[in-house]
Design goal:
21% strand, globular, 5-stranded mixed β-sheet, alpha/beta, single chain, 11 helices, Rossmann fold
Amino acid sequence: MDDTQMRFCPTPPTRAVTSSSWRGQTTNFVERPDLYNAVALHADDIDDAGWPVAFELKLPKNLRSGVYCVILSERENVEYSDPSKFYPVPIFVTPGKEGSDAKIALVLPTFSYRAYANNSLYTEADDRLFKLKGPTRSGILYDYCIEKGLKSQYCSHDDGSGVHLASLKRPQVTVRPDLLSQLHSFTHQLSADLEILEWLERDSQAYVVLTDELLHELGASVLAGYSVVMTGSHPEYSTSEQLDAYSDYNAGGGNLMYLGGNGFILRVTIDPARPWLQELRRGDGAAIWADEPGEGRHQTDGKVGGLWRNIGRPPNVTFGLGFSAMGFTGDGRYRVPSQCDLLTLPANLREVMTSIGDKLFGIAGLELDSYDAALGSSPRATVFGEIGHLPKHYVPVNEYLGELGIDPVEAVEDGVRANLIWIPAGEKGQVFATGSIRWTSGLNTEGDPTNVMAITGAVLLDMMSGAE
């Protein structure tokens, strides 16, 4: 199959697959391609759905950067109460070549949107663990994915192998602003990240929207000029180029607000010839599914995939925290650690945290990150939040269990942790990290009972004033 044929192949072949003569001689198909002269073809992999162009939309020239939707509906009067009756196509408008006067940039984790698109994993998820699992108004969307055989990168093919490839040119039924996850019964990915935009709009903050693709293609140059760069609530998947963009921006004095949890933990690559095609290899121990022996390298670049922690780039180094625990039974709260010196915090954040005192605050929920100096978390960080309360059935992630002792019960109890941190400016710019996917769900809660709005707003003020 030549490159032209492969480019338009409706079913993209999974390569870097061991052949019948492979016996563990190497795990690098670049070194011994003769041992990898096999491909896997799956009917439910889609490169390009080949849809004909139905209409073209020309956006206004001076349209402000943000998230917009084109509503597709059979009826003129859209039935918004029924997700099956319409489809809101999300459009991410970036500043363009003209740039923007805004000093705040929110990077939407669009590589993670790709990975989760069409995720119907909830059907197989254990009800004993996923205590919030249940029908939602979005249930019909998940049923549609199952009926049509649409797969996310959390699913497996009929032969049991994991879904390695995800295309932008396939239906992405669950990437929509009104989605409610049936695993958790609340917003997730794009629908959760809109909480950040609502907060910025309500607070009258001038901002722009960027995407993972822009960081991947243009590097730190796309972040230049912004005083603060924010992440989404769950930026789980990233390329090496994207991580370079964040770390180079921060190393140059740029300020980062990591507003989520379980972020930047798994490597993906983008096919340079087909940039709509994203590849994921989970390695031998990542959750959901594991790669077959000898098949942990990406076919797009020949490099090892899987957890960034296992290939030398734990998120702690750039973002201060790393994935450590998860639970699906509800939200918890933080407390100020007894050894924390609030005087090390900048003025606005210090004032808010002093007023909170010894009360529980914030939202720690779903998937949690913690401070770990052994994995590169900055020794200059102030850890001003630790778990004060969590519902039962939270567990540490697999990577930590082996390090926590022989007694499995004790290991689980000791391993469930999460932190909230501030890293002051020095050799790098400032960093604020929330340690929780669910943090942003408190950004628009009337009365601010969890102090999420107050804390996040204070951090933004401190970073903006420090950057001037």
